[in-house]
Amino acid sequence: MENLHQITKLWLCACFALCISTMGLAQDDHLFVHHYDGSPYLKYKDSTEAITIGTKIDHNAKLVMHRDDTAYLLNKEGELIELHETGTFKYKDIVKLKPIQVKKTTYQKMMLYFWKEFTNNFDKNYTKSGFVYRGDYVKLLNPMDSLQVYANELKFEWEAKPDKTQPYYFILKEANSDKVIKIGTNDTSIILFIDGINLQRDKSYEWTVAESKFVNLETTNFSSFKILNKEEHAIKKAEAEELSGFLRSIGHDESEIKTMICRYYKLCF
After folding, report:
1. Percent of the chain residues past pLDDT 70, beyond the cut
2. For 145-192, what is each residue's pLDDT tens digit?
3. Which residue from 119, 107, 35 is spatially nearest to 78, judged by alpha carbons?
């Protein structure tokens, strides 16, 4: 009888674990709108919602497509699903469609950046790099975090704090080094030249802006960037051209392509 009791407990635990696992998978089952043409919309049980770039589509929604509509939907594998048929489509029917066939190299890496970006927008508790932003945090604008850049100069920009009367302190750290530069300024931007003095090619850096010259660097949130050398630039440029060709083929114009590659693939020239 004791053995039967133990078996029953194990069976119940297994069922509970399976339910939790299934719930987790269900929450992870969704697509994001990468881009679209026309005016497709989502239909829920008691409401409708116009789609935009980054709209989430899951089991609770049906996608309504008109005659001239086209939607490109992104899955978590970094694949794009193209839908241009007229009708109302459930999530389970959309995911059965065959994704666009492309070389799964640089392209897929960029699409996974899109997935991460869209997911972060839905996570209300998401904070960059795991830091909780304090009230005195200065929002960094450019260059964006994890950027790869090839240029002769770099402009650093940050968001102005309301009623600010004291200087900002721009802080630059060279990766894997004790070298730290601090510059006080009343402006919300600063330009540094890549001249081998403050910034050098083929090196990585971190930067931030503080309201105090005595900020604790160990607990301060930094953004990072890498300055490419000539050889790295040639390789990255070839990758960008490959991505551009694909994005052009699915309807993006040159301005959109440049912005997308810079923002999501972190490659700006």
Report:
1. 79
2. 889 999 999 999 999 998 888 999 999 999 989 899 999 999 999 999
3. 107
